[in-house]
Structure formats: structure tokens, C-alpha cells
Design a protein that fits this description.
The chain is 73% helix and 5% strand. Required for proper homologous chromosome pairing and efficient cross-over and intragenic recombination during meiosis.
Length: 205
């Protein structure tokens, strides 16, 4: 006989939120511990932890009235909360794109003044930082992919533009490496080590 698969923590959270959204009422913990197992398949022993995790993340509201503590969550608040979070992420993506543009200009200046090798090295290091920040933003955006498809798609298009900018920047770095290699007869490995260029630097697909 196959072992029955348990419900994951994320699934419990989703089910509990659905319970709040469907009922649109105020509950005490003891009420949730009775309703959740019957309607959402969440064992009563885990209801308190699930609700608390949602409260900690600001997805469920709670208030003590007299000696009783009540919990509630409405779909409208969740939608507005996701919208604010997505807007914040879009602003961060926009800020990162501007930083990438600025660093691209710095790289161009460094290429024009090739004797200033320290500036080129700093620019390449900044490229690495901005790429890491971009990856973090992509991970954050991914969390909201299933919650607000329309807004996520808009942010995704902006990220594609950001990716194109990074690839153009990467192309400039390759051109700079090639120029230095041919002009000064320097080995590629020496250039990469001197200017902090990752050996696996490549275009983003």
C-alpha cells in the first residue's frame, strides 16, 4: 500500500487563505481548528502554526477584542498587497536598469581612456554586482507569477529589456578583452584575472 503524501506547508497556507476568502468572516482560533480540517483538509494540530505564519507575512489580520483574539483576511487586501509588492519590484528593476545604463556609459569611457585600467576593473566589478541584483529581483518576481499574471507579464517584459542591456554590455566587455589582447599581446586569462572578469562570463539567454 502506498504511503499517503502529506500536505506541504505552502499548500496549507494557500488552503487557509482560501478559507478566509470564501467565508469573509472573523474567526477565533478554536473555530478555525474545527472548520479547516473539515473544509480544507488541514489537520487541527497545524492550524495555529499555519495561521500564525500568514499573520507574520501580513496576509491575515488579527485583533484582540476583550479576552478573545480574532483573525480575518479579505481578497481585496491580498490583491492590493500583491500589487504594492509588484510595484516595488518593478521600481527596483527600473532602478537596476538605470544603474546598468550608467555602468555601460562608464565602461565606454573606460574603453576610450584605456590607460585607466583601475576604472575598467571597477566597472567590471559593478557589472557583476548588478547582475547579481538582477538575479535576486528575478527570484522575487517569480514568487508572484501565479498571483497577478497581468502585472507579472509587464514586469517580465521590462526584465527582458534589462537582459538585452546586459547582453549588450557583455558584448562590449568581450570587445574590450579582444582589443587589449590584440593591442598589448596579453593572454586572455591574465586580462580576466587583472580586471576581475569571471571566466564563465557569457550572454544571458
Amino acid at each position: 500500500m502506498s504511503k499517503r503524501k502529506g500536505v506541504s506547508a505552502d499548500e496549507k497556507r494557500n488552503r487557509m487563505l482560501q478559507l478566509f476568502y470564501e467565508k469573509k468572516e472573523f474567526f477565533q482560533m478554536k473555530e478555525l481548528e474545527k472548520i479547516a480540517p473539515k473544509e480544507k483538509g488541514i489537520i487541527s494540530q497545524s492550524v495555529k502554526d499555519v495561521v500564525q505564519s500568514l499573520v507574520d507575512d501580513g496576509m491575515v489580520d488579527t485583533e484582540k477584542i476583550g479576552t478573545s483574539v480574532y483573525f480575518w483576511a479579505f481578497p481585496s487586501k491580498a490583491k492590493n498587497s500583491r500589487k504594492r509588492q509588484l510595484n516595488d519590484l518593478e521600481e527596483k528593476v527600473d532602478c537596476t536598469e538605470k544603474q546598468l545604463k550608467k555602468q555601460k556609459e562608464s565602461l565606454k569611457q573606460a574603453m576610450d581612456g584605456r590607460e585607466d585600467t583601475s576604472e575598467r576593473g571597477e566597472t567590471l566589478l559593478e557589472l557583476k554586482k548588478q547582475k547579481e541584483l538582477r538575479e535576486q529581483l528575478l527570484l522575487e518576481l517569480q514568487k508572484y507569477k501565479d498571483n497577478d499574471p497581468e502585472t507579472f507579464q509587464k514586469a517580465k517584459k521590462e526584465i527582458e529589456l534589462l537582459k538585452e542591456g546586459i547582453n549588450r554590455w557583455t558584448d562590449n566587455i568581450f570587445s574590450l578583452k579582444s582589443w587589449c589582447k590584440n593591442k598589448f599581446n596579453i593572454e586572455e586569462s591574465v586580462l580576466e584575472k587583472q580586471f576581475g572578469i569571471p571566466t564563465d562570463l557569457d550572454y544571458i539567454n
